[in-house]
Amino acid sequence: MRSTAVWTGLTEEQARRSLVPSRTTLLGLIKHVTFVEKVWFDEAVTCRSRAEIGIPATPDESFILDDGDTIASIQRAHREACEASRRAAATLGLDDVLRGNRRGPLPLRWVYLHVLRELAQHCGHAEILREQILSE
């Protein structure tokens, strides 16, 4: 997901194409992963609300694409969220407890593993969608 390879050979229309009954699209997946970065490395670290951060209230809403969302704009937002995540965690140790998540206090180590698992899951989803789109 932190790579541009997922977009190779895809048009804007293909990136928005819905192939499953849920809101999941390739572009929506990257928008959702950007939301995940902000939940775990902004909300959880800073204790700011999702409204203050400017992200949707629920994960399901994070898949919704706006008319202005493009491959370039979503890539940029994701890249910026990842950079902000690295800065937010740079001074923290793995055993430091983050208090801003809705699940309650959690060590940074748990957060890294959770985000890694979620990212891996969504990479799998993206690969399947990309394969379906390009085989048409």
Whole-number average pLDDT?
A: 92
Class based on secondary structure composition and strand pairing: mainly alpha
How many distinct helices? 5
Overall number of strands: 2
Beginning-to-end CA distance, first to last residue: 23 Å
Shape: elongated
Radius of gyration: 15 Å
Strands side by side in the biggest sheet: 1-2
> What order do the helices and strands follow?
HHHHEEH
Structure write-up:
This protein is mainly alpha-helical and 136 residues long. Helix content is 56%, strand content 3%. The chain is built from 5 helices and 2 strands. The chain has a two-stranded antiparallel ribbon. Strand 1 (97-98) and strand 2 (106-107) form a beta hairpin. Helix 2 packs parallel to helix 4 (71-89). The longest helix is centred in the C-terminal third of the chain and has 27 residues, at 108-134. The protein is elongated.
Describe the SSE topology.
Elements: H1 12-16, H2 26-46, H3 50-53, H4 71-89, E1 97-98, E2 106-107, H5 108-134
Antiparallel strand pairs: 1-2
Helix pairs in contact: 2-4, 2-5
Short account of what is shown:
The chain is built from 5 helices and 2 strands; from the N terminus they run H-H-H-H-E-E-H. With 136 residues, it is an all-alpha fold.
Question: Notable features of this structure?
Answer:
mainly alpha, two-stranded antiparallel sheet, elongated
